[in-house]
Amino acid sequence: MKRAFVTGITGQDGSYLTELLLAKGYEVHGLVRRSSTFNRGRIEPLYLNAKGEKVPLYLHYGDLSDSGNLFALLRKIDPQEVYNLGAQSHVKVSFETPEYTSDVNAIGTVRLLEAIRQLDLDARFYQASSSELYGKTSALKQDESTPFHPRSPYGFAKLMAYWATVNYRESYGMFASNGILFNHESPRRGEGFVTRKITISLARILAGLDKELRLGNLDAKRDWGFAGDFTELIWRILQHKEADDFVIATGETHSVREFLQEAFSYKGLDWQKYVKIDPAYMRPAEVDYLCGDSAKAQRLLGWTPKVKFKELVRMMVDADIKELQSKPMARQISPNP
Ligand code: NAP
Ligand code: GDD
Fold it and tell me: What is the pLDDT of residues 7-64, one digit of tens each?
């Protein structure tokens, strides 16, 4: 049985990847942070299989800022695959916490790579790189050769992590690969990201709980895919015959305004009656436009994105309406970044 070590297992991608790895017969070890509130809601449904039996899923306390902890865990688990999905993943928050974001997202990656190297583990390493690396780009489509120009502490920390991964591959012959993933969303998306903020808010407006939705820049364009589709690729990147870097994207781009239009019109509402622009949600520097070219991944990894924009929006709207109906008292939305 193959053993995988997953950082960020409690996050959106961590939960989809864990589901996939368990279905493929892996023993999965996940890094979890101690928290004063419950942070395992996304993976809790995975603890038992369809027959009600316990699955080989093991959680270990730790943090990407703690080298000793990462060394000890990697030594004990001795995984064949390491997926580094853990990160302070919110771009706007990174402007307020640049040092912490750099420590976790950049140095945290080096800590893992260095532990694998020093322990001489025979492990393949996946780094969750991001389309935020392209930042202020003028390329109409971004691929593996497009120059990087990050626009936030999140972006420059991920840039260092990207190059650390490439350098450990080139210097030490490690199997270390980057997935440069464009935005991907799902009903499990964190509530502070714009798509989920919109679909939760729409559900609340429909239920009569809210009257308005406060947002920042509606002109930004993103290449939004489905997280369930993209995590399949994360796994395929580590099964490829050699370590390499791959762009994962749908190749379609839409503005935040178009997302609003699609979501609200699906439920027969005019978004313009509810949305207020609030400078609190603007960023010191913005990434205006992203649209990925994943031809290399499609060619070498045999993949095409399945879920399209409209289907993704509707899936998220329907899921939030259903969730609100099932737990109306639990859903107290807090001010989001
Ligand atoms: P997410 O939902 O925000 O999950 C982030 C995960 O990282 C959570 O499990 C979180 O733990 C964990 N984490 C945060 N700080 C940590 C620390 N100091 N030590 C250990 N773990 C820590 O993010 P996601 O959307 O699943 O994204 C997964 C990865 O892909 C991230 O690295 C992100 O930057 C990158 N990425 C995401 C996208 C996207 O569109 N989703 C696109 C490109 C790249 P808690 O649950 O305890 O907070
Ligand atoms: N979060 C948020 N909240 N974003 C808003 C809001 C708001 O109220 N109003 C407008 N936006 C705009 C942001 O300014 C940005 O241009 C766009 O919506 C998308 O913002 P997010 O959903 O926060 O995602 P992101 O693109 O900044 O970052 C996500 O995708 C990256 C990949 O490109 C994150 O998942 C990153 O971790 C990931 O690397």
Answer: 999 999 999 999 999 999 999 999 999 999 999 999 999 999 989 999 999 999 999 9
Asked if residue 233 is part of any domain, the answer here is yes
Cα–Cα distance measured from residue 30 to residue 12, given in angstroms and rounded to the nearest whole number: 13
258 classed as catalytic: no
Please tell me the residue having the least CA distance from ligand 2 atom 18: 194
pLDDT at 333 over 60: no
- The residue contributing the CA closest to ligand 2 atom 36 is 89
Which token pair is 213? 């939705």
Domain extent for 149: 3-185+224-248
Where residue 303 falls among pLDDT bands split at 50, 70, 90? confident
Q: What is the CA(208)–ligand 1 centre distance, in A?
A: 32
Please say if the pLDDT value at position 324 is more than 60. yes
183 C-beta closer than 6 A to ligand 2: yes
DSSP 32: E
Q: What's the number of domains the chain is made of?
A: 1
Query: Which is the catalytic residue, given 16, 26, 134, 154?
Result: 154
Pocket of ligand 1 (CB under 6 A): 7-14, 31, 33, 35, 39, 63-65, 85-89, 104, 128, 130, 181, 183-184, 190
Q: Is residue 210 part of a domain?
A: no
CB 93 within 8 A of CB 45: no
* Model pLDDT, residue 327: 78
Residue whose CA lies nearest to ligand 1 atom number 34:
89
83 within domain boundaries: yes
Give the tens place of pLDDT for each residue, 230-257: 999 999 999 999 999 999 999 999 999 9
How many CA atoms lie within 13 Å of 112's alpha carbon, on the beta-carbon side? 32
Instruction: Of 163, 139, 162, 135, give the one whose Cα is nearest residue 149.
Output: 135
Cα 67 to averaged position of ligand 2 atoms, centre (Å): 30
Q: Which ligand is nearest to the CA of 337?
A: 2
- 130 is a catalytic site residue: yes
Domain assignment of residue 113, yes or no: yes
- The CATH code of the domain that includes 180 is 3.40.50.720
Task: Tell me which amino acid residue 44 is.
Answer: E
Q: Give every CB contact of residue 331 below 8 A, 6+ residues apart in sequence.
A: 200, 204, 323, 324
